[in-house]
Sequence to fold (104 residues):
Amino acid sequence: MTLLAPHIGLLGALAMLALLATCGPMSVERAEEACYERARLAAGPRGMVAVGTGSGGPSSKVRLTISSEWLQGKDPAELYNSCVYRKSGQLPRRPLYDRPGWKG
Fold:
């Protein structure tokens, strides 16, 4: 404890160690999940349109999400691989296009 300032105390030192532990790489499984949505958005815009009516009259709602990676024409698979590697220090366990549910 001599490396830490004396006023921090034991609880402060433990809190700092816990914070430093979260800075390390995450598991490859967590990295794949974290990077999947980013790759999905790089494949193309995502959106939703809703139209309805109720006691307040007609209503509509539009939501559109466009990523800068899609605008730049980046390959979703390359983006996914680099994201997973950056977060976990490992390559993905399976390619993006082989993931269940991928509809890129």
